[in-house]
Design a protein that fits this description.
By secondary structure, the chain is mostly beta strands. About 5% of the residues lie in helices and about 60% in strands. It is globular. The relative contact order is 0.11.
């Protein structure tokens, strides 16, 4: 491999001799992806790729200008050949210093991908952030509403959002209790993102819950040097509409202010699965030579019609007899059964007009960064997240006893049940601080940091209407408060042992306390007082074979506490914490028009909280501890610039995801439902639920003229089992979906930039599902089983116009 790399570099060097090309890097030789390179002689401008590489074909000696946010502009006269351009930091500190503690560099022994602002903008037609990241390695995305707007999520290496550490500017985003990430609460956050880094595996997560599959780190928009304005409008299938407007003052006497407002609406692909989303973003800061003080306010409000129930397999197969069995198993009444029988692939179990989620979330961040010397810099951040909202649901003939109420006398009749409407509320606040100090010796870099966070959340339910009222209006039938304290301290080091070999270490101690008390729906009294102490060490080596090529090896340990709903599950014993041992190794290379990455991983779990296939009554995954399980695989990424007009990039992930010994427990209610016993089934080396063995993505781009791009985007996801039994009758079929994306960009004299885009999703009208769940029981010797799936939209489109002033 070493000799091959040098042969390829030699070929690239001969080709480059016919052009002016090279790499733009910082003083530590880290690539500056997205740097602007302008040929002052010809007036042509280009952007350096993710390796910092640039090339001007058939260009004679000329004067070039190199620019990158946060670095001094360099002007150089260059002849034909390959050049190394090093940019020095500017006199003004930039926002990048805030995310250094949570991100990794190009030579880090970690599998990661960086998604730049320009790459985000290409795909951002108004769909949620997970959908925009669909083509990154090992990612599987899904949408409850089927069209990418509303409740969406992504699984990385088979791990759900509750096992993915997410931060915005280094501040934890995961819900403190359930540890999930609800992107619908901050819609169109992609429009205010400067870059996104996805780390796979344990990675370098430092703040918030530990990563058990991946980390997603967002950096919000950095300040612009000059005033600007944006206006983006999108329209598309299923009544989808999006309007985004924003702007900034540029840098004025060391101060800069930015703002954005967004409005997104969609009817959804699934029946009645509408979304009405609003969001805002405000940023203001002082940027001195050695000091940054920056304040941010952002958030949103979402009103989405519930569609988390999915579609029964019987409905997808249009099997009337099986649909009647589904209605019987679900104990649906005549109205609900008729809805099932007379719907189609877009079936929604809910028909009540106000069956909605109504939730608002507001984030506040304050960041202070100080450069004490050329080698020492410190960050201090304060944050607050406030959430308030409910979901409303109609209940048919609900028993009063479930709400702690007695019967109601109606004339001579004693009524024990009634149709009613209830709301289940969440009122919470999350506050905290993070801090870090970066120091660099000659060949040694270190980051010492930590954080402290506190969460308090009230959960309560209200009956707001009943056909026969069993209680006063707004009666609270349960109330409990959850509180969580999360503190950590970490020490990261990078040691350049030689010009080629570097070592990385990361030691983190984390203490978590979770308490909850009160009453919970269907659970009764709640009394939780759990404490955890975790030590998470990480270490790795990286060896640079040549310019742009390296190999690496790493080991990391991570621990996680159970989530709130794990304590309320009736499936098995009380939950315990989990442990992950993650071994990773890989090879990366890049030269001129070709890049290639290979990463192998082995993730060994102890007491993993694995999904059993069921959902609880609020749509969360039901999980149980399994003693031993693992994920092992190979991830390959590559890109080729075939010519000035053709380029390709793609990735494929192949993995084996297993539980060594799994016990399934099902209830047996007897032939006449007169008993309630347990039946247990044992499985050896069964597949982990919702963990496909193969995931791949491909993007083929054609540039007929410099202002136009046509891209063919493909996504393949292999078979996914709904539970951990490896049963072929409980599986999501593999799917291969293809999209077409067109964009035309112009720079008229009266605008900085004007762009028209068109995205045609699922051009071959593939009828597929991307997610699902299952549940069942026994009635004597007969097993009753219901499978549910989340169908995704067939062929649909989105069109966009973007104006930059």
């Amino acid at each position: 491999m070493y000799k091959l790399t040098w042969v390829l570099l030699a070929i690239a060097g001969q080709s480059a001799a016919q052009s002016v090309s090279g790499w733009v890097k910082d003083e530590s030789h880290a690539p500056l992806a997205g740097a602007t390179v302008e040929n002052r002689t010809s007036g042509k401008t280009m952007t350096a790729d993710h390796r910092g590489f640039f090339e001007f074909d058939k260009t004679d000696s000329a004067v070039f200008e190199f620019r990158f946010q946060g670095y001094k502009t360099e002007v150089k006269s260059l002849a034909k050949g390959v050049h190394a351009i090093l940019l020095a930091p500017s006199a003004v500190l930039t926002e990048d210093v805030v995310v250094r503690a949570t991100r990794v560099s190009e030579l880090s022994p970690t599998a990661f991908v960086n998604v730049s602002k320009s790459e985000i903008a290409k795909q951002n037609f108004g769909q949620d952030l997970p959908i925009l990241l669909n083509f990154t390695p090992s990612v599987v995305t899904t949408s409850d509403a089927g069209a990418g707007v509303g409740y969406t999520n992504m699984r990385i290496r088979g791990s759900d959002p509750s096992r993915t550490n997410a931060t915005i500017n280094g501040i934890p985003l995961n819900d403190a209790e359930e540890q999930g990430v609800f992107w619908v609460d901050i819609p169109d956050m992609a429009s205010s993102s400067q870059s996104i880094q996805i780390q796979r595996g344990v990675g370098s997560s430092t703040n918030g819950a530990g990563a058990f599959g991946a980390s997603v780190n967002l950096q919000t928009t950095t300040h612009a040097d000059k005033p600007y304005g944006d206006l983006i409008a999108s329209v598309g299938s299923f009544g989808t509409r999006r309007l985004t407007t924003g702007g900034g003052t540029g840098l004025l006497n060391r101060f800069a202010f930015d703002a954005r407002l967004s409005k997104i609406t969609s009817n959804g692909y699934i029946d009645r699965a509408s979304s009405d989303l609003q969001s805002y973003y405000l940023s203001g800061g002082y940027y001195g030579e050695k000091t940054i003080i920056r304040a941010l306010l952002f958030g949103g409000k979402e009103i989405t019609y519930q569609s988390w129930y999915g579609v029964p397999q019987s409905r997808l197969e249009n099997n009337a007899e099986a649909m009647n069995e589904t209605a019987k198993a679900e104990e649906w009444n005549k109205i609900q059964t008729q809805n099932l029988l007379h719907s189609g692939r877009t079936f929604n179990a809910y028909t009540y007009p106000n069956q909605i989620d109504n939730y608002a979330q507001d984030h506040a961040q304050l960041h202070l960064s100080r450069q004490f010397s050329k080698s020492t810099q410190a960050n201090l951040s304060l944050h607050s997240t406030r959430g308030l909202g409910y979901f409303e649901e109609y209940r048919y003939d609900d028993k009063f006893s479930k709400y702690g109420l007695g019967s109601v006398q109606a004339g001579n009749e004693s009524v024990k049940a009634s149709d009613l409407v209830r709301r289940r509320w969440l009122d919470n606040i999350f506050i905290g601080t993070t801090a870090s100090v970066n120091h660099q010796f000659s060949q040694f870099k270190m980051i010492l940091g930590g954080g402290w966070n506190r969460y308090a959340g009230d959960h309560y339910g209200q009956i707001i209407w009943a056909k026969i009222a069993p209680a006063p209006n707004d009666y609270n039938y349960y109330f409990n408060r959850g509180q969580k304290w999360d503190g950590n301290i970490y020490w990261k080091t990078t040691w350049e042992i030689s010009n080629q070999l570097s070592a990385f270490t990361d030691f983190q101690y984390r203490r978590v306390t979770f308490a909850a008390g009160g009453t919970e729906d269907k659970v009764g009294s709640v009394a939780i007082d759990a404490k955890f102490n975790f030590f998470n060490p990480k270490a790795g080596l990286s060896y640079q074979l040549s310019e742009g090529s390296d190999i690496y090896l790493s080991f990391a340990a991570a621990h996680r506490e159970p989530v709130r709903s794990d304590y309320f599950s009736t499936e098995g014993a009380a939950p315990s914490s989990e442990r992950l041992m993650d071994w990773e190794g890989g090879y990366r290379t890049g030269f001129k028009n070709v890049t290639f990455k290979a990463n192998a991983f082995y993730m060994r779990y102890q007491n993993q909280l694995a999904p059993i296939g069921k959902l609880n009554d609020v749509g969360n995954t039901v999980r149980v501890n399994v003693p031993k399980s693992y994920r092992a695989g190979l991830e390959l990424e590559g890109s080729v610039r075939l010519s000035k007009k053709f380029a390709w990039q793609g990735n494929i992930s192949l993995s084996d995801n297993r539980i060594l010994d799994y016990t399934e427990t099902l209830q047996d209610f007897g032939d006449d439902f007169s008993k309630n016993e347990e039946k247990k089934f044992y499985y050896r080396r069964s597949h982990l639920a919702l963990s496909p063995a193969a995931v791949g993505a491909s993007g083929f781009s054609f540039y007929p003229v410099p202002q136009v791009e046509c891209a063919w985007l493909s996504k393949y996801v292999g078979k996914q089992y709904l539970d951990n039994t490896s049963n072929e009758n409980r599986a999501i079929k593999p799917y291969w979906v293809n999209d077409l994306r067109f964009s035309w960009q112009a720079k008229p004299s009266f605008l900085k930039e004007f762009t028209i885009g068109l995205l045609v999703n699922n051009i071959f009208n593939e009828m597929y599902s991307s997610n699902g769940y299952t549940w069942g029981y026994f009635s004597g010797a007969k097993e009753e089983r219901q499978n549910y799936f989340f169908p995704q939209a067939g062929r649909n489109f989105l069109a966009m116009m973007s104006f930059k002033f």
